[in-house]
What we know:
Elements: H1 4-9, H2 29-38, E1 41-43, E2 48-50, H3 53-64, E3 71-77, E4 82-87, E5 93-99, E6 104-109, H4 112-119, H5 123-129, H6 132-142, E7 149-153, E8 168-172, H7 173-183
Antiparallel strand pairs: 1-2, 2-3, 3-4, 4-5, 5-6, 7-8
Helix pairs in contact: 3-7
Amino acid sequence: MNLDKFLKTFPPDYFVKPIRDKLPSSLPVPLLGLFEKIGAGKYRKGIIEIVDSEEYRPTLETWLGRKAPNYFPLALSAFGDLYYYRKLTDTDEDVCVLSPHYRSINTCVWSLNSFLNEYLTDDEVIKSKLREDLFMKSVNKLGALDVGEIFYFEPALILGGAEELQFVSKGKAKVHLDILFQIG
């Protein structure tokens, strides 16, 4: 899989490091290449984070309410949307997004390549789904995100919060995703 378009749109930033030691053997070949060659960490100043699939598996499975051995957490938006890859059959795959703020799951695209090189690199997706303007304002107000951190809304959107700068805070992604799950 060629990642040139993804890397041009989302250059690796701080703390990006290849994952080689603890990758599960069940990981599909395209994901192995992504994790081994490029790695996990923040991209494009932190607007997206490629995550260690095994580290975020418990979070995904909590939200799904079941074990999902063929589902692989892939990326986390700066506002906590968790993108995951699903190996559906030997030839079928897709990438879905878990939006914890709205308690929804949607299919983004039908292949990992399309997700990385078309969906994520689309200007409209960057503006609306990754909340580019709010992200930049949040970084200016609260500082850059560390690996494993996200921006979140206080109060949570599900409790009547709003996607506005005055309601943005930052903290540990897995902790906040767990809190949002418990609120629901």
